[in-house]
Amino acid sequence: MMHERFAMLMGVATVIAWSQNPSLGQVGHGGHGTPSPQRFSVEIRLGSGSAAKILRSSVELPSPNASADLRQRIVLPAPLAAIQLRQFLPKAERHQKVTPDESPGARPMTLVSITGPTQSFSRWLVAGDPERNRLISLIATWRFMAVEDRTQRDHLLVDFETEHSRPPMIRVVPIDGGRETTVLANPGTVHELPHLGGQLIVREFFSHYALSNKTNKPLNASPKRVNPAVLLELRFGDTREQRWVFSQFPDYTGEKPSVIPWKCVLDCPAEGKRPRPDVAIVVTHDADWEAWVRHGGATETFDAAGATSIELPSTPYRFRLSRTIRSGRLVETYRQADGRGTEPALLVETLDAKGRPISIWLTPGKPRIMLLETGPATLTLTMEGGPGKGHP
Questions:
Q1: Is residue 2 helix, strand or coil?
Q2: Are 43 and 339 in contact (CB under 8 A)?
Q3: DSSP secondary structure string, 56-84?
Q4: Per residue in 355-371, is it b (16+ CB within 10 Å) or e — as a string?
């Protein structure tokens, strides 16, 4: 179905802080006595399913607020080279660099610049990258999608206009890569996942997830899709796991770490308590760049490449595509910074199958994949007292 294709193109949200954010896993102190140390761990999952091998390494640093050069190694089974922990930044911000590239694996990219009376912001979006093709803020949402032809573009526009009325869906994919499965999020339904070797049961769906002030238990505060959430029961061999999944917080991990190696995403766009614009940036195969802006039930379409700026309805903000690249590659780094929107970041390195150095940055609760000689390795950074505490 076309709305499933639309969901796959949308990918996973990246949350952008336009307002004050809660702490992202940083260990502070009250200004008296000796500061608490900074503790974190790295989990490495080699392979998938019941045959996966899991390695963990813990690190303790004396200062919770200082960056550190590390020399710690995580030894992997032969013939794999060790994972090197190189640098830890307790407060880091992400920097992006894009270069044009026509080789296989390159993707369309655009730099979205948002300006207004109190804030300005720019971020690269990458079509087909589930971690880099969506932005969410309190001002609006932006999604970037690439389609092959005008027919696909026209179907996608219909899905964009009707996404708040279509049924919520759950997308399931192995965390180390593989085929994605999409199922309806109807409470009480049981979905067999034979290619994953397990089963998914939908226990609850809340359009407006909230916690009761009296019982501190989840409840559905309203029928409007303000904070969509679904409670899943996952079954994998003899392992059972219950997991809350939030459409607006796809990286939420819960108080206990996930034990079943599936990434579950709730495809149910939130309307919010107050209406806010939704923007879809679409490029077709013949390099036509468009922006679709939906607000108050109406959708306008714009020539995004030719527009100097596009107004966001009912806000004092505007946006534009500062750069468009039909085929390119993105490199991201992290730098120590102060202020809002920072999070811990860890640089790790190893060697690929040909002995060449490869490196990635890890941030809390967001699994990243390295392709090694024996297959994919999934790395996850966990902070002591970090993400996973409390509810969104």
A1: helix
A2: no
A3: EEEEEES-SSS-EEEEEEE--STTSPPEE
A4: eeeeeebbbbbbbeebe
Question: Taking a C-beta distance cutoff of 8 angstroms, is the pair 254, 388 a contact?
Answer: yes
User: What does the alpha-carbon distance between residue 131 and residue 13 come to, in Å, rounded to a whole number?
Assistant: 7
Answer whether 261's CB lies under 8 Å from 174's CB.
Answer: yes
Q: Which residue has the tokens 């702490």?
A: 23
Above 80 in pLDDT, residue 234? yes
pTM, full prediction: 0.63
Read off the DSSP letter of residue 158.
H
Question: What are the φ/ψ torsions at residue 126 (nearest 5 degrees)?
Answer: -125, 120
Helix (H) or strand (E) holding 4: helix 2-10
Name the E strands within 152-238.
Answer: 169-174, 181-184, 190-193, 198-206, 209-211, 218-220, 229-236
SS3 96: strand
- The 3-state DSSP class for residue 138 equals coil
Position 55 pLDDT exceeds 60: yes
Helix, strand, coil shares of the chain, percent, nearest 5, are 5, 50, 45
pLDDT classification of 175: cutoffs 50, 70, 90: confident
% of residues, the chain, pLDDT over 90? 43
Question: What stretch of H or E contains 295?
Answer: strand 289-295
Position of tokens 């720019």? 122
Q: pLDDT band at residue 218, thresholds of 50, 70 and 90? A: very high
92 token code pair: 């880091």
